[in-house]
Design a protein that fits this description.
By secondary structure, the protein is mostly helical. Helices cover 82% and strands 0% of the residues. The longest helix has 28 residues. The radius of gyration is 15 Å and the shape is elongated.
């Protein structure tokens, strides 16, 4: 659970900091942490629609959340590269 939450938090946080700066980074950390928890809950709800007995802390939810977090990380990397290329130094 912690690995998927930490990867998704960084995936949300890093491009936002690149785009808007670090002035409000504490608020952005709290928002991205909350969004990571919401994403895990959404994964759990979607899995409950498919299967009947899915536990929130079960391995199915953890594995699916980890896959979503890794996909978000790749998308975050690509977005961060584009933001970095478009910035004028």
């Amino acid at each position: 659970m912690g690995l998927s939450l930490s990867i998704s938090t960084i995936s949300i946080l890093y491009p936002v900091i690149l785009r808007f700066g670090v002035e409000k980074s504490e608020m952005m950390i709290f928002v991205s942490s909350g969004l990571s928890v919401v994403i895990r809950i959404l994964v759990w709800v979607l899995l409950r629609l498919i299967w009947d007995n899915v536990n929130f802390n079960g391995s199915e939810v953890g594995f699916a959340s980890l896959i979503v977090a890794v996909v978000m990380f790749v998308a975050s990397y690509l977005l961060s590269v584009q933001i970095h290329k478009n910035k004028e130094f």
